[in-house]
Amino acid sequence: MTPDELQAVGRWMSAHVPGYSGPLSATKFATGQSNPTYRLNAASGAYVLRRKPPGKLLKSAHAVDREFRVQKALWDTDVPVPKVLALCEDESVIGSMFYIMDHVSGRSFPDPTMPDAVPGERADILSEMALTLAAIHEVDLEATGLAEYGPPGNYYARQLDRWAQQWEASKTVDLPDMERLIGWLRANLPEDDGQRTLVHGDYRIDNLLFASEGSRVTAVLDWELSTIGHPYADLAAVLMQWKLPPGEEGRGLAGIDRSELGLPSDEAFVATYCEARGIGPIDGLSYYVAFAFFRMGAILEGVKRRALDGNASNPESGLRLGAWVPRFAALGLRSAEER
């Protein structure tokens, strides 16, 4: 954020954020490929600013206004979210839409193996992760005003069309595995079972904050891709992440001895989630996981495209993430074979 932008934000906050007082300073978070995110320090306390990136953007992407709306709706529910304070839709202030929310303290675990935790703690943390996901999917859409937050109809049909279009709009190379995966997903689209819940859209452990002591989730972050849809999309996204290799880039659990680390199996995690929601075993999860690989591959190709076009939040990281797209396509096809 430039000095001029910071001054403009300070002036805007003085007029729109109750209790705000400067001076204001900003530090950019290293995470957050899609929407640049800053910690703001002021005399009145700590805040977080999320903004759309500059430059030409894909249609419907970087929806910080949707993030603001859903977090505001969830403030008095069982889903822990930061308190949002103000949304600026006037792009003339700093060149793009942004919103301000309270800063929430907590532990972040970018690596699902949680190397600094102990086995019992790891199990408790992932149990809370499952319970929080169930709470998201049990949100009363009418009571929160979110009933129209997403269009009606078959969620997977809608999402498949959307992300196939995004793939075509952002792809930098031809990738036969991705085309085969899209074809398989279309051919094996499950019938609409009528489930319609709030969906986070990018649910994984590094988008959660946990209490400094204990396993309580203090905040669910990054709601840009949230909508009303099918709850198994979020569940499958967790399982997809764990099928990736461990380490800073993959951040998965493939090849890890989970029992030694005190980490639950996929089956145990799903069982905790199902018990919390009061539902029975889930059939056909492999389709949902295959779709999750496709969708994330399309997202990462968009990140790569923005890096190449010069308007990524972190261009170097964007190119590294984009290099994973062929792996996501291949793993999606592997999940399809497990059906």
TrEMBL record:
Coiled-coil ranges per UniProt: none
Gene3D superfamilies with a match to the protein in the record: 3.90.1200.10, Phosphorylase Kinase, domain 1
Pfam families cross-referenced by the UniProt entry: APH
Record domain Aminoglycoside phosphotransferase: where: 26-249
Protein name: Phosphotransferase family protein
